[in-house]
Amino acid sequence: MASRRGTVPRLKLSTIIRRAPKMARNAVRDLRYGKPLGGTIRTKYAHLGAHDVGNADYGDLALLFADVPVGPDDVIVDVGCGKGRSINWFLDRYPHNRIVGIELDPEICAETAKRLRKHERVTIVCGDATALLPADGTVFYLFNPFDETVMRRFAQAMLDRGSPATIVYMNEKHASVFDDLRFTVAPIDPPGLSFRSVLVTVR
What structural domains and CATH numbers belong to the chain? Predict the structure, then answer.
């Protein structure tokens, strides 16, 4: 049964047992940035094309970005940042980069901004990501935050910016929205990565 905050019903015991080691490792790393971030929150904005708020695994993020070129001057944008676990990882992995998180749900957005307020390199923005993409963003990360309709708006918004960028799309469900000669799409498939993912270059 969902809680008042919209938490998705609890996992089955067998699933918890299977995932327990990974969940414990993630929780320990979460604590470095304030509190455990595990669990999924059911979105209140499905009618706007948003998906439930979940969390990437730290190990998956390391695999995902292993060969992604990120320089110290790049601005990393977490599109649909949710509770901000990926931002925790970016802070560790890229100690000199500015990081922007964009989250549609104002309550989750406010909680994430409050938790990360001591980190001057981090800015959390609330609202529709397709309308709030920062002009100076260069590396955009998504963990399947939207349905296909919104992903198409996102792809068009990336083209409308008129500047080169890299998109790291984890757990891709709608890579077909990048079927345009101005995009180059390549799979990211290192051994052990939990989700099918792609690297998209915007020319």
Answer: 13-45 (no CATH), 47-202 (3.40.50.150)
